[in-house]
Amino acid sequence: MSTMPHRARPDACPGVFSTHDAADGALARVRLPGGRITAAQLAVLASCAEELGDGSVHLTSRGNVQLRGLARDTGELVGRLSDAGLLPAPTHERVRNFLASPLSGLAGGLVDVRPLVAALDAAVCAEPALAALPGRFLFALDDGRGDVAAEDADLCWQALDERDGVLLRAGKPGERVPRAEAVATLVREALRFLEIRGSAWRMRELPGFSGARRPARPVEAGPFVRDDGRRGLCVAPLFGQLTAEQLRLFGTDVVVTPWRSVVVPEYRPELAALSSASRVSACIGRPGCAKSRADVRADARRVSVRAHFSGCERRCGKPRDAVDVVAAEDGYLVEGAWVPAGALVDVLGQKGNR
């Protein structure tokens, strides 16, 4: 059973109006409900990364994007993103955390949840009380395939058929909810969380709200067949990082997934080349983060197994199903066991062959 956490500090999850002060400059997180972003908005992000930041856009494990290396005064960034429609609700900016099945409406699934994402975003932003949700609180809308239902959402509606779905609270299945009532139910449950949360940031931290963890079901990188017989593409860049120049290659509306990849509705070989064959992931590490003990991305480039390299115990961005690799004195802790840096490739290779 979960126990109620006791926290002395407020939730400091970054946004655009309240950035994180990293070693390489300010970090801004831009929320993308359901991961959806238009071609015009991609172009604005590319320009912001190039002219105001470190030159890249960084994909997150919640289907959002981050800009790093920014000046501490983000007034110009706020103006550009607002004009692009990426900051429609300033008071609710940090709570617009909505996952949705990335292939919904393109390939598979029982229902198209894209209209539900737009309706949920509008409903949450229209409820003043929900501006008080912690920045880590996560909603999900799963079209029945079970992909985002496995991503540790606080509240999730998952389709069971074309008409009905099930409400999941911190992964724990609850009552049957008609699709027509999904948005209202999620808003009601979020308000209830605010009433009982105490100092908790996540629903799973409350007694009785922790469900069984489900196997991860990410969209695989590469081409996929759409329901209409045409082909789309999922692009998975190394470390979820795309330069401004690479971002401009998309030139179409896309969906950012919770697995640091991008779903493109039309297959194009020049975009397929942006995917990395490696399955490794890593936090930003040194020199971008002052808390990191190592340049973890440099070390992660030496391996290709499903592992996540973290510069410290916070394990920022760690996927659920990856081998846990944490920087330590003169080496790394691999699943808790110390390994010298020189033996890391061999040890992880053995784990990848199991």
TrEMBL record:
Molecular function, one GO term: metal ion binding
Name used for this protein in its record: Precorrin-3B synthase
Keyword Transferase on entry: no
Alphabetized UniProt keyword annotations: 4Fe-4S, Heme, Iron, Iron-sulfur, Metal-binding, Oxidoreductase
Domain Nitrite/Sulfite reductase ferredoxin-like residues, every copy: 27-72
PANTHER family in alphabetical order: BLR3264 PROTEIN, FERREDOXIN--NITRITE REDUCTASE, CHLOROPLASTIC
InterPro entries: NIR_SIR_4Fe-4S, NiRdtase/SiRdtase_haem-b_fer, Nit/Sulf_reduc_fer-like_dom_sf, NO2/SO3_Rdtase_4Fe4S_sf
Pfam families assigned to the protein according to its UniProt record, in alphabetical order: NIR_SIR_ferr
This protein's record includes keyword Electron transport: no
